[in-house]
Write a structure and sequence with these properties.
With 265 residues, the chain is an alpha/beta fold. It has helices at 50-57, 97-100, 107-117, 123-136, 142-146, 155-167, 185-202, 213-216, 237-242, 247-259; strands spanning 5-17, 23-35, 39-43, 65-74, 77-78, 90-93, 173-177, 205-210, 222-227, 230-236. Strands 6-7-8-3-9-10 form a six-stranded mixed beta sheet, sandwiched between helices. The longest helix has 18 residues, at 185-202. The radius of gyration is 18 Å and the shape is globular. It binds adenosine-5'-triphosphate and magnesium ion (MG).
Length: 265
């Protein structure tokens, strides 16, 4: 390993206790690490535990799920002791921007609130910063957009606003749940390319979740394959696509080839 790990996740466990004493384990001992400037894909079939893994890295597990074990460190420091870990040092871009944004606050107010909450800037300066972040997320006409409400945004615009929000706390790591729903293929590709550009420019570590290996294959340096809550295979993207070892990986590679999604040769 060349670079020092920036984000280290070790043995992450999420459990769900169902009525009647049944315990499900949607995330089973997931370990991974990301270096600054590194883009890693987390792929797996629907329900394999990708979204829960991202949330659990941030210390979140919506009920009835609960975190049952594991360690998360940022630059060697336990996440619980890192000030502004969640939403600050580590930004989250969710799968469904529409429902993640606050419907009763304008785009500008949400950005300003986040910027101020993280002590990045205040008042007029925070408002200016909000416009800059929208521009960084490739939203033209940031002025009018600052006053827009989430329901007035297109799916692609909402996703870009989510990215701007994730950047508002000056993160070192971005966790992104692929914006699959409601976006057309062209917009989806643009959003993914935007994420890559921003993480490159800022030197961020990116953990990019997708169930479509073909879609993200060209965008990430490494891929981890999740199956039923476990990392079953990991490695260099090209090698993995060429010679998948695990059946779960093979299924993803076959699906990618069938759809021709990533446009790979
Ligand atoms: N808050 C929760 N409480 C209980 N079970 C959950 C919760 N969230 C997800 N699950 C279950 O855990 C498993 C993993 O879900 P998760 O949302 O992480 O899948 P995913 O890999 O992100 O799938 P997709 O590609 O469809 O988004 C699924 O069986 C799901 O039903
Ligand atoms: Mg998901």
């Amino acid at each position: 390993m060349a670079a020092e790990p920036l984000l280290e996740v070790d043995g992450l466990e999420v459990v769900v206790r169902r009525p009647g004493g049944v315990v499900e384990r949607p995330v089973r001992g997931v370990s991974l690490s990301l270096a600054a400037g590194e883009r890693v894909g987390l792929v797996g079939a629907s329900g394999s535990g990708k979204s829960l893994t991202l949330l659990a890295i941030l210390g979140l597990a919506p009920e009835p799920a609960a975190i049952a074990g594991g360690r998360v460190r940022l630059a060697g420091v336990d996440a619980a002791r890192v000030p502004r870990f969640r939403g600050g040092e580590v930004g989250l871009v969710l799968q469904e921007a529409g429902s993640a944004l606050n419907p009763v606050l304008s785009v500008g107010a949400q950005l300003q609130e986040t910027i101020e909450a993280h002590g990045v800037a205040r008042g007029v300066a925070a408002r200016r910063r909000a416009a800059e972040l929208l521009a960084e997320a490739a939203l033209e006409d940031a002025g009018p957009l600052l006053d827009a409400f989430p329901h007035q945004l297109s799916g692609g615009q909402a996703q870009r606003v989510m990215i701007a929000l994730a950047l508002a706390g000056n993160p070192r790591v971005l966790l992104a749940d692929e914006p699959t729903t409601a976006l057309d293929a062209v917009t989806r590709a643009q959003i993914l390319e935007l994420l890559v550009r921003i993480t490159d420019e800022r030197g961020l570590a990116l953990l990019l979740v997708s169930h479509d290996l073909g879609l993200i294959a060209r965008l990430v340096h490494r891929v981890l394959v999740l199956d039923a809550g476990r990392v079953v295979e990991s490695g260099d993207t090209d090698a993995l696509l060429r010679d998948p070892a695990h059946p779960a990986t093979r299924r993803l590679v076959e699906a990618a080839n069938r759809l021709g999604g990533g446009g790979r040769a």
